[in-house]
Write a structure and sequence with these properties.
Helix content is about 80%, strand content about 0%. It contains seven helices and no strands. Helix 1 runs antiparallel to helix 5 and helix 4 packs antiparallel against helix 5. The longest helix is centred in the middle third of the chain and has 75 residues.
Length: about 240
C-alpha cells in the first residue's frame, strides 16, 4: 500500500500526480496552446483526472482512458508534442491503475487485503490471548502463593528478630539490676560482653568506672583512718 501510494503521489506535486501536472502545463503552454480544440480536450481530461482522484468512480477512469487514447491518436504525428503526449497518457493510465490497485473502495484492492489482514491478525491475537489466559491465571495464582509465602516468612523473621531483641534487652536489664544489687555488698564489676546493646555497654562502662572510683575512695579513707588511729595511739 505504501509503495503504490508513493508511486501515485503523497501530495499534488509528488509521484504520478506531480508528473501529470507538469505534463499538463507543458502541453497547455507548448505548441498546442494555439489550438482551441486541443486545449478543450486537455481541459476535459484535467477535470476527469481531478474528479477521479476525488471520487474514485469508474466512470471517470473510463473517460480518462478513452479521451487520452483519442488525444494521443490525434496528435501522434505531430513531432513537437508526440513525446509529451505519450508520457502524459502513460502517466494517466498509471494513475488510474495505481488507484484501482490500491482499491477504489475499502472492500477492493490492497485496501481490502490490508483490512482483511488486520482482521486476521486481530482474530489470531484473540486466539493467542484465549490460549494464554489459563497460563496467565495459573501464573497469577503461583505469584499470589509466592507473595503470601514471602510475606509470612518475613513476618516470622521479624517476630523472631523482635523476640531476640527483647530477650537481649531483658537479659541486659537483668544484668544491670543484679549489678546494682551486688554493689550494695561488694565491689563487683559488670561484664559488658553480656550486654547486647551498645547503649547499655556504655552505661555499664560508666557504672564500672563509678565502682572503681568508689573502691579507690574507700581505700584512701581506710588508709587515712588507720593513720589517724596510729597517731592517736602514739599521743596517748
Amino acid at each position: 500500500m505504501v509503495l503504490v501510494q508513493e508511486r501515485i503521489g503523497l501530495t499534488q506535486n509528488d509521484g504520478l500526480r506531480g508528473r501529470i501536472l507538469a505534463l499538463e502545463n507543458a502541453l497547455a503552454e507548448g505548441p498546442l496552446a494555439q489550438k482551441a480544440q486541443a486545449i478543450e480536450q486537455l481541459t476535459t481530461m484535467q477535470l476527469a483526472t481531478r474528479n477521479f482522484q476525488i471520487t474514485r468512480e469508474g466512470y471517470y477512469a473510463k473517460q480518462i482512458k478513452d479521451m487520452s487514447a483519442q488525444f494521443s491518436a490525434k496528435y501522434q504525428n505531430d513531432p513537437a508534442v508526440r513525446g509529451t503526449i505519450v508520457q502524459y497518457r502513460e502517466a494517466l493510465i498509471g494513475l488510474v491503475d495505481g488507484v484501482i490497485t490500491l482499491g477504489v473502495t475499502h472492500n477492493e484492492g490492497l485496501r481490502n487485503e490490508f483490512r482483511q489482514s488486520a482482521h486476521n491478525v486481530e482474530t489470531q491475537l484473540k486466539g493467542v490471548d484465549a490460549a494464554l489466559q489459563p497460563v496467565i491465571e495459573q501464573q497469577e495464582g503461583q505469584v499470589r502463593i509466592y507473595s503470601l509465602s514471602i510475606a509470612a516468612l518475613t513476618s516470622v523473621v521479624l517476630i523472631l528478630v523482635l523476640i531476640k531483641s527483647f530477650a537481649t534487652f531483658h537479659r541486659a536489664f537483668v544484668n544491670f539490676l543484679t549489678f546494682f544489687y551486688r554493689c550494695k555488698r561488694q565491689y563487683q564489676m559488670i561484664d559488658t560482653r553480656k550486654l547486647g546493646f551498645a547503649e547499655l555497654k556504655s552505661l555499664a562502662e560508666l557504672a564500672n568506672e563509678m565502682v572503681e572510683s568508689k573502691r579507690d575512695i574507700e581505700a584512701r579513707l581506710a588508709s587515712v583512718e588507720a593513720e589517724l588511729a596510729t597517731k592517736k595511739a602514739r599521743s596517748s
